[in-house]
Amino acid sequence: MTAFFDLPVRRFKANGIEIAARVGGSGPPLLLLHGHPQTHAIWHRVWPALTRHRTCVAADLRGYGDSDKPAASADHAAHSKREMAADMVGLMRALGHERFEVLAHDRGARVAHRLALDHPAAVSRMMLLDIAPTLDMYEGTTRAFAQAYFHWFWLIQPAPLPETMIERDPVFYLRSVMGGRPGGLAHFSAEAMAEYERTARLPGWATGICEDYRASATLDLEHDRAGRAAGERLRLPLRVLWGERGAVGRNFDVLGLWRRIADEVSGGALPGAHYLAEECPDALLEQAGEFFGWRQEPRDPPMRLFPG
To answer: Looking at the Swiss-Prot or TrEMBL record, what is one Pfam family this protein matches (predicted)?
Structure first.
């Protein structure tokens, strides 16, 4: 099996732009989506086990990594989760996958949430890592959450303030955000950090991440409110996992909030803070194997089920 970082990063036309992704493994398709301020390299520690059971597509969101970085728009529509979700549907269709599973972290999990709402026939089941629903997190913001997630409120300031400051030293910004959580930078491999730092220096990266958050604080909330008013719900099996040392579980009733808008929810805390695929890959793989339903092998760790 080809090692993760030895696999080529391929580019695929999707939704009018190009999306970068690594593809490997065999079996049913599984879409992997990363969060801020990283790339699809977050999956490198769980990739060998996942690709034994699934055809994995690890993609960079638009604005991040090696994917295209569209220009900002006044209404932030170019970076809405609706548009990012359409990118991923287009990517999977380009690979011949009309229906697939999703495993997504952080910003990618917000894209996955919108993807499952807008394209319900495309997603069979979904695992989301370390998020509560975006609308509930904004409406339930406390001082403790705002201090822990300061970047949510700084990145949405009008351009070019945050972009200019980030572009002066993008690696300092990246290391400050990632290293500011429990455990600091010790969780991350040298190869992964090199990828995160390389792509943070790419033109358009600062604009992409700021517009992602501006869209979440404006247009995405409009989409969420309109959907809830219309009775929109997630109808697929959903598992949500969060870090027991992280801010999401401390500040929100994660399962309670998801159960308000989804029919079939299970989940619980893992022994990490936020970057679960890199902090506690074995615990994540236990949950992935049980939830996605592949046959347990002797070399896999024993599975543990959280109650539904």
So the answer is: Abhydrolase_1
State how far the Cα of 22 lies from the Cα of 7, in Å rounded to an integer.
7
Q: How far apart are CA 29 and CA 33, in angstroms?
A: 13
Contact 259, 131 (CB under 8 A): no
Q: Which residues are tagged catalytic?
A: 106, 274
Q: Which residue has the tokens 């009733």?
A: 253
From first to last of its 308 residues, the chain has per-residue pLDDT tens of: 679 999 999 999 999 999 999 999 999 999 999 999 999 999 999 999 999 999 999 999 999 999 999 999 999 999 999 999 999 999 999 999 999 999 999 999 999 999 999 999 999 999 999 999 999 999 999 999 999 999 999 999 999 999 999 999 999 999 999 999 999 999 999 999 999 999 999 999 999 999 999 999 999 999 999 999 999 999 999 999 999 999 999 999 999 999 999 999 999 999 999 999 999 999 999 999 999 998 645 444 443 444 44
- Identify the residue whose tokens are 């060998």: 48
**Residue pointed to by tokens 């491999």:** 189
Question: Is 101 inside any structural domain?
Answer: yes
In terms of residue numbers, what domain contains 8? 4-292
Peptide bond into 203 cis (omega under 30): no
Tokens linked to 238: 């959903």
Instruction: Give the helix/strand (H/E) hosting 305.
Output: none
Which CATH number covers residue 97? 3.40.50.1820
Within a domain: 243? yes
- Both structure tokens of 10: 């391929």
Longest pairwise C-alpha distance within the chain: 54
Residue 306 falls inside a structural domain: no
Residue 13 lies in a domain: yes
Structure tokens at 66: 């090696």
- The gap from C-alpha 278 to its chain's centroid, in whole angstroms, comes to 13
- Count Cα neighbours of 8 within 13 Å in the Cβ-side half-sphere: 3
pTM of the model: 0.95
